[in-house]
Each structure stands twice: as C-alpha cells, then as structure tokens.
Amino acid sequence: MQQATADDWFRTRRDDTRGAEALQAGLSRHAYGRHAHATYAVGFTERGSQSFWCRGARHRTQPGSVILFSPFDLHDGHATTDAGVVYRMLYLAPEPLSAALAELGPRHEIGFRDVVAEDPPLAAALFAYAHELDAGDDPFAAGERYLGLAATLMRHAGRRGRAEDAGHGAIAGLAARMREEMAERLTIEALAEGEGLGRFQLIRAFRRRFGLPPSEYLRAIRLEAAKGALARGIPPAEAAAEAGFTDQAHLTRLFKRAYGLTPAAYARQAGVPRLPRRT
C-alpha cells in the first residue's frame, strides 16, 4: 500500500446527533488497503476517477458517480490515474438511518444492491448534507438534508440478511457479544464455544450473514470505536486500549489503512467545530 503524500489531503466533519461523519479527500498516491466499515458509507466522485475492489469485482468511478457501501462491505481504493481524485464520503450509523427509513416503510436492515451508481439526484442529496456539515452552523437544516438523503437512498436499498438464514440468531448474538467485549482478548475458540457452534461453522455462518470473516468484523467495529473515542478527545493510546487494539502502533497501522490518516491527525481534525449533540 502506498503511503499518503503531501499531495493527498483529508478533511472530516461530524454530526453527533445523527451519528454521521463527512469526509472530503483528494488522493494522488495514497491507496487504501482492503478494509470494511461498521457504518453505511456513501459518497460521490467530484473530480477525477477512483478504482476499487468490492464484492468480488473491480469498479471504476467518473465525476458524479455515486459509491454505495453497506456495513462491512470489504473494499480498497485508489486514484485511477496520476491526475488523482477528489471525492466525498458520508459514514452513516446504521441505527439512525434505519429509524429514518422505518418512517418511509422498510422496518428491516437494508443493504445496497449496487456498489456504483450514476444517480445525479442522489449525488445532489449527498452534497447538500455534506455542505451543511461543512458549514456546521444550522442543525435544523442538517437534519432536513439528512432526511432528504435517507429518502433518496431508498431507491438503491434492498433487504440485508434474513432471519430465516441458518445460524442467524446465533450470529446476531455473537456479533452483539463482540461489540460488548471488543476490549477483551477474544479468540475464535471462546466465541464458538460460547454460542454452541463449531469453529468452521461459526466462520461460515458469519460470512453468510455479514459477507466477511469474524476477524474482519471485529477489526471494523474496533476501528469505529477508536474513531469515536478520538473524536471525544481521548488520546490515541487510550483509544487503542479502549477499543481492544494491542497498542497504539497496532491502531495506527490499521487506522491509516482504513481512513488514510493517523489517529493523531484524525483527532486534530475531529476537534473542529461541529454540529452540537441534541439535548
């Protein structure tokens, strides 16, 4: 994986009320390693082109292309040409998005059918919400833009996972346990025994449910937890321990692969003014 250079830049903004984060980035040489997010990740290409692997295929964007990652979609990414790429991504926590979508009909966990779409109205909705987060001074407008985005995302939504899938209940319980105990030194043997599953059975069922092995799931939720801790002002070393990483160096290596920034650099950006939490 190539490292970020002076030509690569990243800017983040947070909306704590709705559990969302906006990223705007310009990449020339930096390449993301394969990783997954615990959130929905939706965005669009502003200038240039980017290429990435996801769901067993390579994809390429053009200006205006919309990118749609469901939670735990494994992917990588890099600029397609030396001209680089400028793009925006919004990371949307599943619970608030599901609550908003439930008002429109679906009361199940959604997944996106396509990874790349040519949808100008959706790109416009993404930009409108991201623009409000950039400004950071109008929570009412941000809430309205968020709902507009949620409604526009509906056209790309499909059902994600089914309760009748084999092992669904056991895997749901296991995922909840991993979230609760992520700071502990978990092992595949202990998790399998706790759910009454064989180790191979656990891995197969986890792949069916989430599309990735349990180790990648655990890594994604630990990174998301560390990111939240950093945004609250917790020092990187403490954030690493709180999320279950071996040490700060372990967190830094995986954090840069997933987000392009070191934890310290992200913490500095997360300290910029952002929409206040609703009380």
UniProtKB/TrEMBL annotation:
Pfam families: AraC_binding (PF02311), HTH_18 (PF12833). Keywords: DNA-binding, Transcription, Transcription regulation. One of its GO terms (molecular function) is DNA-binding transcription factor activity. Signal peptide: none annotated. Residues 172-269 form the HTH araC/xylS-type domain. InterPro entries: AraC-bd, AraC_XylS_family_regulators, Homeodomain-like_sf, HTH-like, HTH_AraC. SMART domains: HTH_ARAC (SM00342). This is AraC-like DNA-binding protein. It comes from Chelatococcus caeni. The lineage of its organism: Bacteria, Pseudomonadati, Pseudomonadota, Alphaproteobacteria, Hyphomicrobiales.
